[in-house]
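Please fill in the sequence for the structure shown.

STRUCTURE ENCODING:
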């Protein structure tokens, strides 16, 4: 296979691992496939006693069965299964001219009939993906789902993912209800909701907010806009130096495959930083107005459940460290929201999330 590009320091040219072979390869040789070595061989022997009808023997088991005839009796040898799923691309070692020794670890373990049939089907599925045009890297990612995760834990992950989808639906439903009844933007950070609006279907959301007052601002709305602008001003003093400093630090201390790789990584980290800091102006507005009654708490609650589910996936799924940290940043913001909700108790004269106050409502007739 074609070897992965070597990571180097873009300024000094120092590689992540100095090769013993010091010869310089031409650029055309970088795209040529070279021999790789698999350092691990996993052997599994099926130990369960089973009985199948000879005329309806499963094909997946049949092709692994070996028979020998001793006299007039036919004996079945123990089923030997060579585990190909555990061979990951990241574990392969390049064989070059200076290689004199190669490590080999032979692992032996028993396997049950049910697990054997499951692994056979998984190997066939991965092979089918490659036949359909999937690259070896894509197929390797699929293998990693089953190899690097306990099967029971994986089943739990699918179960939790179903709840994630349910909470997504409920959060979306309550978002619709919230904006449909919302009459003003008092207490709402326009920076945060402009970002949310850009991420959603603009045409749909315009249709769901027909009752907004876009005329003259009230005093409360002017204060909200003032606090929001003030918060973004302070955060910009932190945001831009943080993004630029992070990009420079990574350029000096972290090795990349190319300048393009460093540029993409810097932009991604900047997006994570923007996403985190754009959630903070709402906290500042809440603090200045001493109120959280204007927030869509039902939708926030469902989104918080999804945030905690994302924390679980952050430990299960292989992902960049920056993305893993981004999962936990939402927890911090939500905990501060909960603290503000406790800190600012209910005030009947305070405007709620629908732009209404209890004192403004007419008493019901008896």
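FILLED IN BY: designer on duty
SEQUENCE:
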């Amino acid at each position: 296979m074609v070897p992965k590009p070597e990571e180097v320091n873009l300024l000094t040219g120092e590689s992540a691992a100095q090769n013993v072979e010091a010869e310089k390869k031409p650029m055309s040789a970088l795209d040529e496939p070279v021999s790789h070595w698999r350092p691990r061989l996993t052997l599994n022997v099926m130990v369960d006693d089973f009985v199948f009808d000879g005329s309806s023997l499963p094909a997946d088991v049949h092709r692994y069965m070996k028979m020998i005839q001793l006299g007039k009796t036919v004996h079945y040898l123990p089923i030997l299964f060579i585990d190909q799923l555990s061979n990951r691309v990241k574990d392969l070692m390049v064989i070059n001219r200076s290689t004199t020794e190669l490590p080999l670890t032979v692992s032996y373990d028993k396997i049950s009939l049910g697990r054997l049939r499951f692994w056979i089907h998984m190997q066939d599925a991965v092979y089918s993906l490659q036949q359909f045009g999937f690259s070896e890297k894509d197929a390797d990612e699929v293998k990693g789902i089953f190899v690097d995760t306990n099967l029971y834990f994986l089943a739990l992950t699918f179960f939790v993912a179903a709840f994630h989808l349910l909470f997504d639906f409920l959060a979306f439903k309550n978002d619709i209800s919230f904006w449909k009844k919302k009459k003003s933007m008092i207490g709402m950070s326009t920076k945060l909701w402009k970002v949310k609006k850009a991420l959603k279907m603009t045409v749909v959301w315009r249709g769901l907010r027909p009752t907004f007052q876009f005329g003259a601002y009230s005093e409360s709305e002017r204060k909200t806009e003032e606090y929001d602008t003030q918060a973004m001003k302070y955060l910009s003093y932190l945001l831009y130096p943080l993004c630029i400093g992070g990009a420079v630090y990574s350029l000096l201390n972290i090795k990349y495959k190319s300048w393009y790789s460093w540029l993409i990584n810097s932009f991604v980290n900047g997006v994570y930083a923007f996403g985190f800091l754009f959630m903070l102006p709402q906290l500042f507005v809440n603090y200045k107005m001493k109120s959280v009654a204007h927030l869509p708490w039902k939708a926030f609650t469902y989104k918080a459940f999804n945030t905690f589910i994302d924390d679980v996936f952050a430990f299960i799924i292989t992902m960049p460290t920056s993305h893993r940290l981004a999962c936990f940043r939402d927890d911090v913001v939500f905990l501060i929201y909960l603290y503000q909700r406790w800190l600012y108790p209910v005030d009947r004269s305070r405007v709620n999330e629908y732009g209404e106050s209890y004192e403004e409502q007419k008493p019901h007739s008896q």
